[in-house]
Amino acid sequence: MDRRFNREQEKLRERTRAFVQKEVPPEVARRLDAEGAYPRGIMAKLAAQGFWGINVAEKYGGRGGGIIELMIFFEEISKNLPVLAWTSGNVLLYGNNILQVNGNEEQQKRFLPGLMNGEYLFCFALTEPDAGSDAANIITRAEPVDGGYRINGSKVFISGASVSHIAVTNTRTASSRYKGITSFLVDTDQEGYRAAPIRKLGYKGSDTCEVYYKDVDVTRENILGGEDCYNQGWKQMMRLLNGERLVLSACALGISETVLKGLVDHLKERQKISRIQGRYQAVEHGIAEMAARVEAGRQLAFQSAWMVDQQMECVKETSMTKLFCAETGKAVTRLGMEVMGRLGYTMECDLQRFYRDIPILSIGGGTSQIQKNIISKLMGL
Amino acid sequence: MMDFELNSEETMIQKAIRDFVTKELPHDRVRELDGMGQFPAKFLTALSKLGFLGMTVPEAFDGEGENIVGACIVAEELAMRYPALAACYCNAVFGAGAVLAALGSGDQKSLYLPGIAKGELWMALALAEADDDPERIETRAEAEGTGFLISGEKKLVALGDVADVFLVLARTGKEDEPALFCVDGNAPGITRNRVETLGLHGESLVNVGLDRVRVENQAVLGGMDRKMTAAEQLEMVRNYQLLGIGAQALGIAQGAFGLALSHAKTRVQFDQTIGKFTAIQEKLTDLLCEIVAAKFLVYNAALAASAGRKFTREVAMAKIAAARIAVKAAMDGLQVFGGYGYSMEYDIQRYVRDAAGTLSAGISNDSLGLKIAGLMGL
């Protein structure tokens, strides 16, 4: 198997890295995190520089990239200001990807051009107060009415919900746990849709919201994938999971790499001043071990991505990747806190932001516990 | 949650501080206080009225008489609910009270200890600079006439914003071990700059600048005829500081654990409370084991200190273990809460932020590791 990145992919990495260096230097990242507002300015620049086309099919004017391109982008965009990955998800994942995997041609034609030029943002509304890890437990319902359906209920932890134009909303349309879920493209301008941002520990600016639906009417055409996909929502979601896990893993890798780099720079400074030969060997070994884990995570991640690309069965591998990369990210930032001491604890140091950001990666997109459930089940346990 | 065999006095202290926490510090109140981030003066005054700030101050100086274990109990209980208040409390009873009672000259004791016991005078430890290695202390105390002129910059001084007195570590000569000086916080030449931190809001961290700050000879900790060397004094100061941090970290771990445990008992997913899942049970069991282990280490150090034994090794182990379990309990606790744990409306996120403060407070764990290794003859 050949898992080298091709020239286009290398160029995408260079381009994203250059974007981050130019547009999101640490001082900008620090300011945006402190402000906590949705980073519209940076999003506009990403749109203008063509990043929103990386995973859109060529027939719609995109660059036709797949999971590997997405991972490269998400890894690099997470490096200085991780929340940009979340907000990019409002175009690349919940817009481009969902429409191309699960939408019908009419929906693709209608939205993809606007997504690519930065006109549209999409959010994905699944989680509910009582349906977190137990996602199939959703109770937000869509009831048939004349000409379509009427949605009532609420969602929670929906990123980008107050800024998005379309909320891909998963609803209960029949009692069957898995075959009773329908996904709708809901226009957020509609009366009865309300989104209220939640204040959170990290990933500030992601516009993660509680969402309320009160008599929100949608037509049959608004069913994701068209009328044939009524009650097919769960199956549609399953098709997104491998990609979601790998993209989140890429975010964790990006954060881990930045933290490791910061740690190396920090320790070099301390080494310079220390008069004791070998004073920091134990700390160096701690960093070396983390570096090994991050590299292992990266190999696992791109190996799994290659399997996705080859359309091989790889649910176990993507679950392992998500578990391993998220937990490694936590371990790396924790080591960072330990090594950098009080310095890492001040708000002027970027480490504290990564320490706040990282815990959600072992929760969102399936907790580490859910990933372990999947892995052990697939091992026949 | 888990009690040692406390004697009757300690049991009374524990009950009193628990009552105080229940009455004065309900969860929503603490959330609000954390948001405001101010020095919790009101609560410290209340604690002093109950005699808790005098627990390291001899009765002759208006204190309650030395009760190191009792002070650890108070710090631990406060930290379970409101870690920043515990941090301030530890700075006062360990960093100031215990240090001066053990090392101060007669004059220093009568000048400062009564105020410390009453919660009317704050002394802050101004030790660290670029980092915590003693070899990197660059602040200088130049002998001049009947005293010294101190110049340098001290980093991340807890209680620095409100301090009436700083205990400053400075070199008197190029090769000398740095010595400790009691420096009036209002002396000309002192500047303070607030530092914003991830957690422990209200601990009032500042960087302190000293520009030719004049002190008299009697400002040397213990006086010019002090009984210990400066290095021995510094070790003692560090040890008391670490004991406080250890007790505080232990409380944070238990606070986070308590939140996770009650969430596991009430949150329903897949038609059962998540605490019924053995994976969650194992997570909580692991935490409990490590918390109790850390508790033994912390109180082992406290008992050694009470007995007047050298407790350098004991307290180093206690601090490393307690700070690590604090971070782990908070992080794992957040994991048990899932997405809700990430919301600022829930308290577990505060423990994640505050725990990091104990991980990095005082001396870094790698420096403590070296210290323990040295004591093992390595």
For the record, the count of structural domains of chain A works out to: 3
The helicity of chain A comes to: 40-55%
Structural class of chain B: alpha+beta
Largest chain interface and its two residue counts? A-B, 48 and 46 residues
Q: Helix and strand string of chain A, N-terminal first?
A: HHHHHHEEEEEEEHHHHH
- Basic shape of chain B: globular
Shape call of chain A: globular
Q: What is the string of helix and strand elements of chain B?
A: HHHHHHEEEEEEEHEEHHHH
Radius of gyration of chain B from the CA trace?
21 Å
Q: State the name of the first-level CATH class of the largest domain in chain B.
A: Mainly Alpha
Name the CATH superfamily classification of the largest domain in chain B.
Answer: Butyryl-CoA Dehydrogenase, subunit A, domain 3
Strand order of the largest sheet of chain B: 2-3-7-6
Class from helix and strand fractions of chain A: alpha+beta
Averaged pLDDT of chain B, please?
94
TL;DR of this structure?
The complex is a heterodimer of chains A (381) and B (378). Chain A is of the alpha+beta class and 381 residues long.
Describe this structure in words.
By secondary structure, chain A is α+β, with helices and mostly antiparallel strands. Chain A has 3 domains: 7-120, Acyl-CoA dehydrogenase/oxidase, N-terminal domain (Butyryl-Coa Dehydrogenase, subunit A, domain 1), CATH 1.10.540.10; 123-231, Butyryl-CoA Dehydrogenase, subunit A, domain 2, CATH 2.40.110.10; 234-378, Butyryl-CoA Dehydrogenase, subunit A, domain 3 (Up-down Bundle). Chain A is built from 11 helices and 7 strands. A 4-stranded antiparallel sheet of chain A has the order 2-3-7-6, with helices on one face. In chain A, strands 1-4-5 form a 3-stranded mixed sheet. In chain A, a hairpin with a 2-residue loop joins strand 2 and strand 3. In chain A, helix 4 (67-77) crosses helix 7 and helix 8 (281-309) runs antiparallel to helix 9. Chain A starts with 6 loop residues before the first helix and ends with a helix. The model of chain B has no long low-confidence stretch (mean pLDDT 94). In chain B, 53% of the residues lie in helices and 14% in strands. Chain B has a 4-stranded antiparallel sheet, with no helix packed on it. Chain B is an alpha+beta fold. Chain B has 3 domains: 8-121, Acyl-CoA dehydrogenase/oxidase, N-terminal domain (Butyryl-Coa Dehydrogenase, subunit A, domain 1), CATH 1.10.540; 124-219, Butyryl-CoA Dehydrogenase, subunit A, domain 2, CATH 2.40.110; 230-375, Up-down Bundle (Butyryl-CoA Dehydrogenase, subunit A, domain 3). Chain B is globular, with a radius of gyration of 21 Å. The chains are: A alpha+beta (381), B alpha+beta (378). Chains A and B meet through helix 9, helix 10 and helix 11 of A and strand 8, helix 9, helix 10 and helix 11 of B.
